[in-house]
Amino acid sequence: MSVASRVPFPDVVLPVSGLVAAVACWWGLTAVLALPPYVLPSPVAVGTRLAENPGLYLSNAVETLRKITIGGATGIATGFVLALVISEVSLLRRAIYPYLVAARVLPKIAIAPILLIYLGVGFGTAVLFVALIVFFPVVVGTAAGLNRAPDSHLDLLRSVDADPIRTFLSVRLPHALPDVFAGVKQSVTLAVVGAVVAEWILSNDGLGSLILVASENVQVDVMLASLAVLLPMGLLLYGGVSLCYRAVAWR
Length: 251
Hints:
Elements: H1 3-6, H2 9-33, H3 43-52, H4 54-88, H5 90-103, H6 111-119, H7 123-145, H8 151-159, H9 164-201, H10 207-216, H11 220-250
Helix pairs in contact: 3-11, 4-5, 4-7, 4-9, 4-11, 7-9, 9-10, 9-11, 10-11
């Protein structure tokens, strides 16, 4: 098998080519227009800033990743459990589900000042904010997916007196997987955004806080260097969820 046949061209080569082209346009723009660093630094200046103090960005990236993983896992687990409950209890679903759908359109950033008033600044408050951000897509998607199982399959299992656990594992959960993972994918991206917002308002560390301090001091190169670290972090998390879905769906 040739190397070309093993490489998924559309999924790997095209995104990498797009990134290289974007960086080349960025570099050409700064070179041709002779833009000052405080307006738009060149990619070389951003790379130099990263190379000068990699420990600063690494330590802040670790703090941001901690908020994302702990808050994201908490929100996803809580949303999944609540979706299971409301899918089994029809009365509870009718009472709560419309408000869960309505809550998705609310600007989640408005929650941060409320948490700041009652809980103050700290790691726990930031984690709670991230958990709230990722909670709603999971619970709404999972609840919708658990009701997509065909009635004919459910009737067949009832006819042989299958227990609820077997019905859930063999029919309801497999049919719900696309909706569950769609909600998780959305939650992962929102967790990255939520962690940065939380570090602006509710925390004093992490890449979000570093970006905020850099903006106050007009250090555009530091801001872009932080974003250069944050971007692959989010892409890796999203890619990890996609790989998990492929593995689970295949099995």
